[in-house]
Write a sequence for this structure.
């Protein structure tokens, strides 16, 4: 009976369409509070943040006061929201109506203090910066203001102290992709076209993405493929296996980019740094394949391949080997000297053996044969013709072997040039990869700490 009598007494002559003050010059002070319950989704493409918050309002209604002694010492009562005046406080960043539960009642104390507590799903516009993805930190604002009433009618204030609001994570569900760092609050006045100002209370939600999933699924596979590309340089440069190996890596990285393209956030404003990282890694793989094709083409054996120019020998085989600390740079020149000595030794041995059986000059053979009897001259002439034929065949074979040995020397020289050039390009490539990796790692670590 006391609750019924009190409710009927308060609402019998209540005018909910009028601001509840006895003097119209009195300003209604609305204290608000915000507690973040969950970060539901972050839509980078549409720049929309969806959160679930616990929102509280507190104001004084001068027409909802009573004496507790007249109503069985009742000091607090719940009344329907539709029956009393409620301030028209909205969020400026609202872009869609969320699925918020309807709370039909408010609490009213005997001093006229009204408390409106309700959970709301907030879908707000937010300027999302994804350049530092997946180590990005987002700062989204929720601006509470009266849509029609000026600051002389409704003024806003903070229910609790700003320090308590900043680090309050007592109800936050900290199990999703995003973690709440802190909530900043600030009061300001806002005016449009020199009109009366409005009171605004801004809450800045600072959230940070957890990068572990993206590090494992995006960064580590890319790093492994780049490491395998560097290891591929240890294959012999004169074999064709390196080319096929690097082409396989390039195809595998292309498939990897197709798979992760749906994971990367897409906006019309810019591209995340990790997307640039993937593109640069693809460019490095293409450069590595181009370098491998150049080296294989350089050391490929061909019969019509010319000798190595002298300036190339001085530049690569002398100066570059000292600069690159290649200690076995003399082995090819030694092999070429040994091959020339072997060729000369074979030539001398064959000449000596021919001189045992005949003469290279026919006049010498005639001089030697002139002392013999006349009947043996015909046999000696026939033997001399036979020896001349054998000598011509052996000379042709010797010239062929010398030519082949010359081709081998040319191939050895180009192989040495290719080896030195391969070491030079590999170290330059490795330095570029290390510099690029250190730069990205430093940037990401600085952003994460900041």
């Amino acid at each position: 009976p006391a609750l019924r009598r009190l409710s009927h007494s308060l609402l019998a002559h209540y005018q909910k369409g009028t601001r509840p003050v006895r003097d119209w010059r009195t300003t209604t002070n609305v204290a608000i509070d915000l507690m973040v319950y969950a970060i539901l989704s972050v839509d980078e493409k549409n720049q929309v943040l969806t959160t679930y918050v616990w929102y509280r309002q507190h104001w004084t209604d001068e027409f909802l006061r009573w004496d507790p002694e007249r109503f069985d010492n009742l000091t607090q009562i719940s009344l329907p929201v539709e029956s009393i005046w409620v301030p028209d406080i909205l969020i400026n960043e609202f872009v869609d109506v969320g699925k918020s539960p309807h709370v039909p009642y408010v609490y009213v104390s005997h001093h006229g203090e009204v408390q409106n507590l309700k959970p709301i799903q907030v879908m707000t516009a937010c300027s999302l910066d994804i350049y530092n993805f997946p180590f990005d930190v987002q700062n989204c604002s929720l601006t509470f203001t009266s849509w029609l009433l000026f600051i002389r009618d409704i003024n806003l204030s903070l229910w609790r102290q700003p320090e308590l609001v900043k680090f309050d994570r007592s109800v936050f569900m900290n199990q999703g992709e995003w973690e709440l760092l802190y909530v900043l609050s600030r009061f300001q006045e806002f005016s449009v076209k020199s009109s009366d100002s409005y009171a605004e209370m801004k809450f800045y939600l600072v959230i940070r993405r957890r990068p572990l999933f993206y590090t494992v699924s995006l960064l580590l596979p890319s790093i492994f493929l780049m490491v395998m590309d560097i290891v591929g340089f240890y294959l012999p440069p004169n074999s064709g296996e390196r080319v096929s190996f690097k082409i396989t890596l390039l195809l595998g990285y292309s498939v990897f980019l197709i798979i992760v393209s749906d994971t990367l956030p897409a906006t019309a404003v810019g591209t995340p740094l990790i997307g640039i990282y993937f593109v640069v890694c693809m460019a490095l793989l293409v450069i590595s394949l181009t370098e491998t094709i150049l080296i294989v083409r350089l050391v490929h054996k061909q019969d019509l391949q010319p000798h190595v120019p002298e300036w190339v020998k001085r530049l690569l085989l002398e100066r570059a080997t000292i600069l690159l600390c290649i200690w076995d740079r003399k082995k090819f020149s030694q092999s070429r000297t040994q091959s020339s000595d072997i060729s000369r030794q074979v030539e001398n041995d064959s000449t000596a053996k021919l001189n045992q059986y005949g003469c290279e000059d026919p006049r010498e053979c005639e001089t030697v044969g002139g002392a013999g009897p006349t009947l043996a001259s015909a046999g000696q002439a026939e033997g001399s013709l036979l020896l001349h034929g054998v000598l011509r065949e052996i000379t042709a074979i010797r010239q062929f072997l010398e030519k082949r040995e010359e081709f081998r020397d040319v191939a050895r020289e180009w192989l040495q040039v290719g080896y030195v050039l391969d070491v030079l390009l590999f170290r330059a490539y490795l330095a570029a990869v290390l510099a690029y990796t250190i730069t990205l790692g430093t940037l990401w670590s600085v952003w994460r700490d900041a």
Notes: Residues 2-209 form a domain with the Acetylcholine Binding Protein; Chain: A, fold (CATH 2.70.170.10). Residues 331-340, 356-372 have pLDDT under 50 and may be disordered. The longest helix spans residues 377-449. The CA atoms of residues 9 and 357 lie 146 Å apart.
